């Protein structure tokens, strides 16, 4: 059973001007599609041919002989999660259960934003910044390349920000901080985060 490129939850121009249609044409239309294509080639005729994406990721994690399989499977999952982490007219302070939980576990939204941007900015090279729930408490993670909190026992991803250069270079050139500011102020889909929190609780 081959994987398909999951549809975006909005049109390719819907996040403009914060993430342009041109960026989505490359990032979603080329990069994400390539991970899907590569994954399908790697699982064809193997025990993973009919396996769910999450099982492929956990099976391949930490096995150097399956690095290609892990990287492509995890990048398919990470990117799909990232697209849903954003929405047109998003960003700003959260509402609902996640707002209360952020205040409880970080002290304030501002402290969360500071730590989240520090994770994204402190990730050397390519990678991701994450908000996760583990043991009933929110935490920040940064992962290099294709790594994902899915492989961390007990951790549930709630939100991610892609900090690979192809996520922002066309719109922000080399300014990752400007991209991270725009992500938090204008793009975060707090409804998605609240749903993930509810599902994990």
From TrEMBL:
InterPro entries xref list: Mn/Fe_SOD, Mn/Fe_SOD_BS, Mn/Fe_SOD_C, Mn/Fe_SOD_N, Mn/Fe_SOD_N_sf, SOD_C_sf
Keywords: Iron, Metal-binding, Oxidoreductase
Residues given in the record as Mn(2+) binding sites: 27, 79, 162, 166
Catalysed reaction, written as an equation: 2 superoxide + 2 H(+) = H2O2 + O2
Protein origin, superkingdom: Bacteria
Manganese/iron superoxide dismutase C-terminal domain: residues covered: 94-196
GO molecular function: superoxide dismutase activity; transition metal ion binding
Catalytic EC class: oxidoreductase
Family to which the UniProt record says this protein belongs: Belongs to the iron/manganese superoxide dismutase family.
Protein name in UniProt: Superoxide dismutase
Organism: Henriciella algicola
Lineage: Bacteria, Pseudomonadati, Pseudomonadota, Alphaproteobacteria, Hyphomonadales
């Amino acid at each position: 059973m081959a994987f398909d490129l999951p549809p975006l939850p909005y049109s390719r121009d819907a996040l403009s001007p914060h993430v342009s249609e041109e960026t989505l044409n490359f990032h979603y239309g080329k990069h994400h599609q390539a991970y899907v294509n590569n994954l399908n080639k790697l699982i064809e005729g193997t025990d993973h041919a009919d396996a769910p994406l999450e099982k492929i990721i956990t099976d391949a994690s930490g096995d150097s002989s399956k690095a290609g399989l892990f990287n492509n499977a995890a990048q398919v999952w990470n990117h799909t999660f990232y697209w849903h982490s954003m929405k047109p007219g998003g960003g700003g302070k959260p509402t609902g259960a996640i707002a209360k939980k952020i205040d409880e576990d970080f002290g304030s939204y501002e402290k969360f934003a500071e730590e989240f941007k520090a994770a994204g900015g402190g990730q050397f090279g390519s990678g991701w910044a994450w908000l996760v729930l583990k043991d009933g408490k929110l935490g920040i993670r940064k992962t290099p390349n294709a790594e994902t909190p899915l492989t961390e026992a007990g951790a549930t991803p709630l939100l991610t920000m892609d900090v690979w250069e192809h996520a922002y270079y066309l719109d922000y050139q080399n300014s990752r901080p400007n991209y991270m500011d725009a992500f938090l102020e204008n793009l975060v889909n707090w409804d998605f985060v609240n749903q993930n929190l509810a599902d994990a609780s």
